[in-house]
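Sequence in, structure out.
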Amino acid sequence: MKIRTQFVCQECGYACPKWVGKCPGCARWSTLAEERVGPAEVSAAPRFDSAPVRFDSLTEESVQRRPTGLGEFDRVLGGGVVDGALTLLGGDPGVGKSTLMLDVAARLSLLHPVLYASGEESPQQIKLRGDRMGIESGDLHVYSEMRVERILEVADQLGARTVLVDSIQTTFSEKLEMPPGSIGQVREVASQFLVWTKTKLIPAFLIGHITKDGSLAGPKALEHIVDTVLYFEGPRQHPHRIVRTIKNRFGAANELGVFEMASDGLRPVENPSGLFLSHREELEAGSAVTCSVEGSRPFLIEIQALVSRTHFGTPRRLTKGVDTQRLALVAAVIEKRLGVNLWDQDIYLNVVGGLEIDEPAADLAVAASVLSSLLNRPLPPSTIVFGEVGLNGEVRPCLYPELRLKEAASLGFSGAILPAGTLAEDGLRIRRVGVASLGEAVTALFGEIDSGPQD
């Protein structure tokens, strides 16, 4: 068969016979790259060597999990590593992906043989990092290789029970005449690992890079191929790092693991609420504490707002850690339903610690922090605020109120402003005030207020 060329979008995988500036598939500019299509690509599709099985003949077997010994990492995996699971870990450059996976590989090597294949670093570089981290390894093998066929062959020779690859963008298959990191290579490498893990029931971890827009580099289909997708994130200005579960076929999604970056590597944070709270006995004006739930884990977060008179025609709405459109919505509800003027006020909102929150339960805390800064009145001490704010000014119930209250009570909080209807007694010594509207919440927090800022 004659070898031909085509232009493939490096973002969505759309293929064109000729180069175009704008991808017809994802509407991105300058993302098409030339790739050679040879006869080997026709037979590149992997196959499972298995026979059909009647559904009623299958027996229920519990999923066997192997804890890594790293509690926060086991949490996001759903309790541990599952045999035959293919996991993809993505993150920004330098966030600590290789450090985390080397720690996981060393812990698993104390139980069984582990192969750590790296196409980005030499074995000597990996050894230097391991010595700096002070890891204790058992049957851990480091292999500097980029060919996926050779990696799988060596894994079989060693009898490895876990394989880690750093990274999938540097690994390539000899079946395709394409450069590493291209759409075809990334898809082929992931497919070969998928077949290998499912047929041999051996877990594998793939490390992936993040593009400028925050998504995993490579085709979107890559996330559909793997069993678990983890995002490793965290601002470089803060020592904490977060592993977030985006997809998990063997456990709950949206789980969260918190780590702290230290000179000797990553350390699990058992109590993340203390990490994201200011160490002050009383809050100042403009601060509110809410409880966010990620997966099955609650933790307290401090939201800070700064409201000041604008010096431009249009007031500014700047946020960090909260969606800017969500702040604009809450500010519009405050103006419409409470009669408080914000049209001439700049609003700056920040989540302490650099954490990103997107659940609606933080709406009431956002409104409370904005009004606290506008009125220059601090919220009642040791009080948390949570609830979703509707467009009509109503406060809607949110999920897991008992879990949020239990976390607040364990950290010494004595009061809570929460949606009405969630006041059932559960043995917690925390005073609760149920509110049905934003107006009732403001009265409970500040008493009667006047429209406009207070000097």
